[in-house]
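In this supplementary section we document a worked example of the pipeline. Step one takes a protein sequence of length 227 as its only input; no multiple sequence alignment statistics are reported here. Step two produces a three-dimensional model, which step three serialises into structure tokens for compact storage. The input and output of this example are shown verbatim.
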Amino acid sequence: MMYSNTCVGIFLSRPNRFIAQIDLDGIKIVAHVKNTGRCKELLVSGVKVVLQKSNNLERKTVCDLIAVWKNGRLINIDSQAPNKVFLEYLQSGRCVNGVTLIKSEVTHGNSRFDFYVEAEERKIFIEVKGVTLEEDGVVLFPDAPTDRGVKHLNELAMCVREGYEAMVVFVIQMNNVCYFTPNNKTHPAFGEALVAAEKTGVRIIALDCMVTENSLTIGDSVPVILT
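The serialised model returned by step three reads:
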């Protein structure tokens, strides 16, 4: 996926989860943060960030904050991006061969899943999670407790029991990482649910991304270590 009208600024502060104060060419502006997560390890005063300028003159914020540099690595933090790049990945045929149907935001049981895919006789539910937390080359999810994430995993396991295929795909919004693992320190219940889902037959996939100032593209598979 591509971004237009991007520019580089300096992060100053984050008064709340929706906005950030940015130094843009010596002028202090307010930008919309396209991620309501904590991102405390990323949004540190003085770091370089990538902004996308808006063409909507009626907006209160003139830019969206979409990426940030951390130790020389550019990390995309746009929470809407993982689904968009994974859809492109699906459409390319790299994830599932012979795709004949792709539906987004499909309700099944008590959950709404990001994608429902059909390929010949295969019927697959897919949930996508964006990953921005990195520690010493290891990427982790979640960065905060997520009861909704646990529910999705349990529902994916139920889909397998009903005869469907199911996948949870962790789109790592950076590259050059070692492996993915659940963040058991922050939310052990999510890690337990992920292990249980895999034992049921849910496929656990992690994919890194090539990140530039104006693009995000899924790259390669990343090893998954659950325990």
